[in-house]
Input
Amino acid sequence: MTTSFKEKSLWITLVTTAIVFSIYFVFVIDAFWEAYTTTDPNFIKLPALIPSFIAAIILMVVIITTFHIALAIAHRKEAMLGDDERDTLIELKSTRISYFILAAGFWLSGLSMLWLPPLAMANILAFFFFLAEIVGFSSQLYFYRKGV
Output
C-alpha cells in the first residue's frame, strides 16, 4: 500500500514534534529536578526554560517547513489537490480524540497551580498540548490506514 501526500506530511509532523519536544521535556524534567534538589540559593536554571521552549518551537517550524517544501516539490500534483471530504472527516475524528487529552491537561495544569510554581504549570499545559498533537497526528495516520 502506498502512502499518500497527506500521510507523508503527517509522518513528517508527527516525528518532528515527537523528537523535538521529547528532547525539550527531558531538559524540563532535568531543570525541575535540579531546582528542587539543589541547596544553592542562587540556582537559576528554570528561567532558561523559556528560551529553550522558544528555540524548540523555532526548530520544529524550520524542520517541518523544510521537509514539507521538499515533499511538495516531489509530489507537486498531489500537493495541489488539497483536502477532500475523507481528509476533513479524518481530521474531525482526530481532533475530537485529541481535544479530550488537551482538556484533561488543562484541568490538571490548573490543579497543579495549588502546589507548583507557574512555570511548572505552563510546562504541564505545554506537555499536554504536545501530547494531544501527537495523539491527533497518530490517530489521523491510523484512520488513513484503516480507510475511514
